[in-house]
Amino acid sequence: MSSKNIETDASLDYQVPLIRGNPTFASITESVSKVTEAKTTKEWFVLFGFFSSLTMIMIGSIGYLIWEGTGIWGLNNPVGWGWAIVNFVFWVGIGHAGTLISAVLFLFHQKWRTSINRFAEAMTIFAVICALVFPGIHVGRIWAVYYFFPIPNQMDMWPNFRSPLLWDFFAVGTYFTVSFMFWYTGLIPDLATLRDRATNKIRKLILGVAALGWRGGNKQWKHYELAYLLLAGLSTPLVLSVHSVVSTDFATSVIPGWHTTIFPPYFVAGAIFSGFAMVMTLAIIARKIYNLEHIITITHLENMNKVILLTGMMVGYSYSMEFFIAWYSGNPYESFAFVNRAFGQYAWAYWIMVSCNVIVPQIFWFRKLRRSIPVMFVASIFVNIGMWFERFVIIVTTLAKDFLPSAWDYFSPTIWDVSLMIGVFGLFFTLFLLFIKHLPMVAMAELKGVLPQADPHFGHDGHEGESK
Amino acid sequence: MKEIQKNITGKQYWRSMDQLADTPEFKEFLEREFPENASEMTNPVSRRKFLGLMGASIAFAGLASCRRPVEKIVPYVKAPENVIPGIPQYYATTATLGAHAYGLVVESHGGRPTKIEGNEKHPSSQGKTNTFLQAEILNLYDPDRAKEITHDGETSDWASFVSFWKEKHAGFIESKGEGLAIVSGEFSSPTLYGLYTTFKKVFPKALWVVDEPIDYSNLYDGIKVATGKLLRPNHHLEKAKIVVSIDNDFLGTAQESVASNMGFASARRVESENDDMNRLYVVESAFSITGGMADHRKQLSQTQIEGFTRQLAAEFNIIDSTAEIVETVWMKALVADLKKNKGNTLIFAGHRQSAATHALVYAINAALNNNGSTVTYHDDQYAVLEGTTLSEFASNAQTGKINSVVMLATNPVYSAVSDINITAALDKIENKISFAAHKDETASVANWLIPQSHFLESWADASAVDGTLSVAQPLIQPLYNSKSITEVLNVIVNAEDKKGHSLVKETWKGLLKTASLGKPWRKILHDGVYTSSNSVAIPSKNSAIAELVSSTKLNNSSLSKDNLEVVFYTSPSVYDGRYANNGWMQEAPDPVTKLCWDNAALINPKTAQALGVNTKDLITLSANGATMEIVVSVTPGVADNVVALELGFGRENLGRIADGVGFNVNVLRNSAGKHSAAGAKITPTGRTYPLANTQDHSSMEGRPLIREATLDEYRKEPNFAPEMVEHPPLKSLWDDYSYEQGYQWAMTIDLNTCTGCNTCLVACQSENNIPVIGKEEVEKGREMHWIRLDRYFAGDIDNPEMVYQPVACQHCENAPCEQVCPVQATLHDEEGLNVMTYNRCVGTRYCANNCPYKVRRFNFFNFTKDYPEQIKMAQNPDVTVRFRGVMEKCTYCTQRLQGAKITAKNEGRQAKDEDYMTACQQACPADAIVFGNLIDPESAIVKAKKQNRNYALLGELNIRPRTTFMAKLRNPNPEIEKLTETVS
């Protein structure tokens, strides 16, 4: 074990190694790869059937939406954005944990990330895919949505570069592209491993193409690691920028409750918070089903719980700061907006948000609870619910009551708001099931790098190449 | 941004209702809480449809874009004379409502009338209109109008009817009209009057029944008693410094509201703190927009109002009365105010008040030297205001004395009071001929239905209240096989088929005393009016008045929650029901309740609390021996223990718009309780009923939105309005566009004269092709009106004030909507207009979210897709009909501005004020809207913006709105002010 590892772990626990059960390189390869190679289980099919049905509901909901118009949703005059944008911000936020785990922790040499980073990155990609469902379809005229793109045209018409929606378009687009490249680059050595293990010709061919001719040579490793480092460097600012840009959708407006400078850091913290909760939910299920408890250990989960506790408190701080500033500014509209959030017609949503996001994570002050699988599972679900409601509170309550009381109204979702949200959850889990079934869900190559035997002699060089 | 604490901070508006009465019941009244059915599915999708959708969704992108409508344009083969495609033509004509005439100028595009404006030369419209007149365009193109002449349900034709009637006619000539009856409304028209006199001559034994659901007979009776003659009063509000309205909604639903609004506004308008303004006292049972304008308002039940007039009359020693309805000091202050302004005051009473009240009003006006000054009386020789009553007709019919009846544009089956069993009476009549615009309740039981032509399809003439005559000329051939009232009556009376045109011309040959109508006739058609006057001065007969008053008993029973009083109101939306199938009127929110697509029983919060009912509760209401179910709307400003009911709703089989909308309250009326009745009872049913309300919140939350002061405060602090909000200097980081060339459009709206009457809203809907979306969509909060009238209540909940603010796009120079649109679909042009490019709009709705005024309207569905052909004809061709998924909003009528600019450019000059007018400005009967070019030093807008009451709504956001408001003023009587201060 490298000294660095010990130092890192020192903050966690002296006794517990990163990977338990003292696995060998071969056993790691075996336990991760066999998931993709074994006969598909009945349970997988049941789950896949269920979630792909939900995905069909999503497709149906989108079809009806496009056929009839956005009027099928509960939107009305002051509340021009409803669940679609709530879901969009929610899913973009979920994605952040993946990037944080894979890129930022990589740059900070947090080696405990290796067990969960593949997982988290996949989650990022799928979450961003889910998020991207919404901006395109929530508009009134979907057939004109290409007006967003800066396409040179004979009319010399360009999108409005002052609009935060356009910034969103670029920010989320960049985010998706970079995240995908980062994820794929990390996958290459593992795809090669799968290719080498493949017994079936077609599988060998497909994986061979996907592995881009990876042979595991020294030079390839050198280039690979440089590329990975660069992409990690590229991804890191995105963790901060994407949700900051998303928050400007609200922060640059004039509407009291949106028009606040605290939004960018507040949104980033919230995104990491919700993302970690989602990783937690998924990892707890996956490690149980695929017997990966020795790879995704309780220590990893505990670390994530600490992050949840920290970001939860940052979010809580933001909530209280919003109130303070609303009072301190002396702006009656702003004061009203926040009092209305907590005590107005949507107070129930506000208190769900506060309970889930601020109160629930406080249980992680206790080591016992931090290391209890059932407790953290339930807590992670609560956090996800709370973060969904945070976006609901920000978007809907603010719009429902702004400057002129005559325009105030109440937003109630329709069945189509609900079906689309459920459907997109279906899409997310469908993609995740496909990922678990067909791709190595743990970064084998990286994981091997943090095993003790990867570093027999030289404490300063943790990444000695081994493709198998 | 801080509200400064000055001596004058304007009105203290309710922060919320519960601040006034902190009980859970009160909390619910105006603030909508978490509704019961949080999610509802409007279009339940069947399984089959769902599967179809699944298939459709696979190909959605391609299919969706196929739905754009394709239109073919066919050019003229032979061009008609004087018609230049794209250039509208304007014709003068006349609309009538009962015996009242309104001169109009109608815009016609390629032979299609599309927009109605007032005729400046006509005394009753003076270039302005009201909501009903604006909505007439849609009545013309109503696809549910009766289209064919039918006989016993079978399609027939005009020739068959004429030959049928000729046979009958011969018989009636012999019997001198025995067994013949005509039921009509009031009218005042030289041609119709001519036919009426012929009828009376040739059928002396026939009955001519005059019945108006909104019945002004008490007014005529009262004046008849006071003067001995059947006269019509004409009020000159521009001359009145003190106005006392006794339950008279003269600014809203009362007849002659256009002229009243004009006059009232001119006496109320101030340009600086040195100007004077009139003072309005109102007593009424439920809020009307007139009550909203009042400087002093008393909420009294109808029985109390009867007593109030006597108390007032006693002060002038007209009668002896001990009635003390309002505090004596209050009354003394009012009387002192009146006496101080002798000759410049005006007292009038509404149509619900008894003949005795009207007679007293006449006497009070006489005592104050108002008769002949602020009110003139007119002997209208062409008017038929009275006739046989409907109940007399019904009893005649019941006894089999009538075998033929012609119902001329009346609908007694719907509107008759409950003690007249009109259906049974009609059953006994052999030949029932209904002349009606729709196959309405009466036409459904008639043998013959003759479709009525719209006034824009017919020749007619009319006499205005002051005697001015005018001609109604058609702008379009009848769309269906319909006939005008003149043509039908001519057949009935003379048994000869003549064109309306020749009938009217014959009359006018007589009027103009000429054998052939030449130039003067053409001038009348061009101008729309022919001036003549019939004003008379008549001394009042005080003894007769006193006699009438003593014979009219005061109801002394005191009201309680078990002895409620019902009051029947003229609907500001559908009048007596005649606008019930008009989508614009149904969707125009009621000025007071902001309800649309329904009527409700209005009860004040206190009474509602005592009764244990709340808004949306269905109740059983019994009055005058009848019972009905109706929904409650808890509305401040209704007198205690009074239930205000709106007429004209609850129609059956009338048309797609009217059917099933609201409740028919006619069933509760009887002959004695036609206007109001005590002894009503309410029992809750425990069920609820959905109501579509365009404004859920009625409190201004203490925000400086509508800025108001009394005249005294204004004089002390002339800049109170702009100074009410203190904010940091409004600076920009950038060099702003200068906006100093060409035209710079801007608007002001004077809240001091705006009454909240909705005329601008309907005018805008007509001008700008704004869709009607229906009750369900309004309930969801998706109403499309480009201009809305924000209504707030202020002051004491048990006797509140009501204020209005029309809000449309403010055309901010630093517009929040423009910055956030990702595709630049909404932009600023160099003339300061915030323009919408529908073609470019993707529909993100971001602009609407970021609009601080929330005036942007989104096409959530393709609202215009399923328009019938007729409705398409009502559209203004100068304005794009918007497609699903685009945002829309007020454009300052950019099409009119472009037209004016083009005309001016062709003439080599700058366009001036007289060249352009927005639709709302043109229609506004109070002239509260001023619009124009900011860099034209002579324009009215430059002068208006210089006034010290001018302020920008939410100006502290540094968005620089082009529309600004003039603060509201009230002019309370200082004596009464002192009184309330000592009380509180």
Overall description:
With 468 residues, chain A is mainly α. Chain A has one domain (3-141, 237-454). Helix content of chain A is 68%, strand content 0%. Chain A starts with a helix and ends in a 19-residue tail after the last helix. Residues 1-16 and 459-468 of chain A have low confidence and may be disordered. Chain B has 984 residues and is of the alpha/beta class. Among the domains of chain B are: 2-15 and 699-970, Alpha-Beta Plaits (2-Layer Sandwich); 232-378, Dimethylsulfoxide Reductase, domain 2 (3-Layer(aba) Sandwich), CATH 3.40.228.10; 557-693, Beta Barrel (Barwin-like endoglucanases). Chain B is 29% helix and 20% strand. In chain B, the strands form 14 sheets. In chain B, strands 6-5-19-18-17-7-9 form a seven-stranded mixed beta sheet. A six-stranded mixed beta sheet of chain B has the order 26-28-27-30-24-29. In chain B, a hairpin with a 2-residue loop joins β5 and β6 (154-155). Chain B starts with a strand and ends with a helix. Mean pLDDT of chain B is 87; it is low at 1-67. At the A-B interface, α3, α6, α11 and α15 of A face β1, α3, α4, β35 and α28 of B.
